[in-house]
Design goal:
The protein is 17% helix and 42% strand. By secondary structure, the chain is α+β, with helices and mostly antiparallel strands. The chain has a six-stranded mixed β-sheet.
Length: 128
């Protein structure tokens, strides 16, 4: 199964269905089911303090938290960023600029038992 490691608190925001776009500096052609893994590293970005205000559950670093479907990889344009700013709160806890991509996640399913795993960079494969 494909996995994406994400720094906390962003992985938990996805698990909590608060965050549906994961922003990256690189695009992907992959579409389909993907686990979200909470890395052991917390973000040091300027959005951290805002992001933790939106948490609905406790972070669980070092674990695969949920399964979701990666349905799109959207190049960020001025129009897309304007939409995010106007219609969502995502810009409060994500990096939105025209040199980045928004990975759209849907059908988020929280795992009954999180899976302990060591994260990796990029999209990686997990085998039980």
């Amino acid at each position: 199964m494909k996995v994406l490691s994400i720094k906390e608190p962003y992985a938990t925001l996805i698990k909590d269905s608060v965050k549906i776009y994961e922003t990256r500096s690189w695009k992907t052609n992959y579409r389909g089911e993907i686990y979200i893994h909470a890395s052991l590293t917390q973000t040091k970005s300027e959005t951290y303090e805002t992001a933790i205000k939106y948490l609905k559950s406790e972070p669980n670093p070092g674990y695969i938290l949920c399964l979701c479907k990666l349905v799109d990889c959207i190049p960020m344009t001025k129009e897309f960023i304007d939409y995010i700013n106007r219609e969502t709160k995502e810009a409060e806890y994500g990096r939105y600029s025209e040199d980045r991509y928004a990975w759209k996640l849907e059908l988020i399913e929280v795992l009954n038992e999180p899976i302990k795993a060591k994260g990796k960079l990029g999209i990686w494969n997990y085998k039980r």
